[in-house]
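TA notes, week 10

Several of you asked for a full example with nothing omitted. So below is the full record: structure tokens for the whole chain, then the designed sequence directly under it. When grading your own attempts, check the secondary structure regions first.
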């Protein structure tokens, strides 16, 4: 459990995420696979960069609206989208290791993704910051040339601070909710809105680094103890 005590700022959280990435960098010495990140997310790119991974970014060509949630668990939904993103890019780079990721929020069984507009962002914010919720990131690793396909997900429980009407209005007007699952980013808000989390901080940021390392270690051709 990670507690966001009084005085812990967004900058402190960024430093904490940096320490997590450094830990992952030590772990990443156990493989030598350059990868493709099938995501345009600057947060995922930053985490991989901090961890010292060799990678390039190739955004996927996936229409997320064509994946209705329906009667499916949030982790299954996130994993399905992550796999679709990874395979979208892998079709163009069949011999490369491609990482796909998708982050959603589970609020009492309801799957919440990115808000389409300010009105929806306000509705989501009022809902999520009234009770604990789960942030789930699905990860998929694909290499078509040898049939490699690994899919998993990580879950972190977020215990929010109740926001005032003024704070909600300021959050929406700031625009920082755009392109973020659940309409917020923990590395930007710090303990202003979050009291504590149970689980991986980098998962809440969109790329669970510990899970990623474990999955990459299973890819054929990973060379323990070597680096390129």
């Amino acid at each position: 459990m990670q507690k966001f005590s009084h005085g812990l700022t967004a900058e402190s959280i960024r430093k904490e995420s940096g320490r997590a990435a450094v830990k992952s960098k030590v772990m990443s010495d156990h493989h030598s696979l350059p990868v493709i990140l099938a995501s345009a997310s600057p947060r995922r790119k930053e985490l991989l960069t901090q961890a010292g991974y060799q990678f390039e970014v190739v955004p996927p060509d996936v229409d997320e609206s064509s994946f209705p949630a329906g009667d499916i668990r949030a982790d299954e939904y996130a994993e399905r989208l992550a796999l679709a993103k990874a395979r979208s890019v892998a079709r163009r780079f069949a011999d490369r290791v491609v990482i796909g990721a998708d982050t959603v929020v589970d609020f009492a069984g309801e799957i919440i993704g990115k808000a389409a507009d300010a009105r929806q962002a306000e509705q989501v914010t009022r809902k999520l910051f009234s009770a604990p919720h789960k942030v789930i990131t699905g990860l998929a690793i694909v290499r078509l040339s040898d049939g490699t396909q690994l899919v998993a997900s990580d879950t972190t429980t977020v215990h929010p601070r109740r926001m005032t009407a003024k704070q909600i209005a300021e959050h929406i007007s700031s625009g920082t909710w755009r392109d973020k699952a659940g309409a917020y980013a923990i590395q930007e808000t710090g303990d202003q809105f979050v009291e504590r989390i149970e689980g991986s901080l980098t998962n809440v940021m969109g790329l669970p680094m510990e899970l990623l390392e474990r999955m990459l270690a299973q890819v054929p051709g990973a060379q323990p103890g070597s680096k390129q």
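The first helix runs from residue 10 to 28. Use that as a sanity check on your answer.
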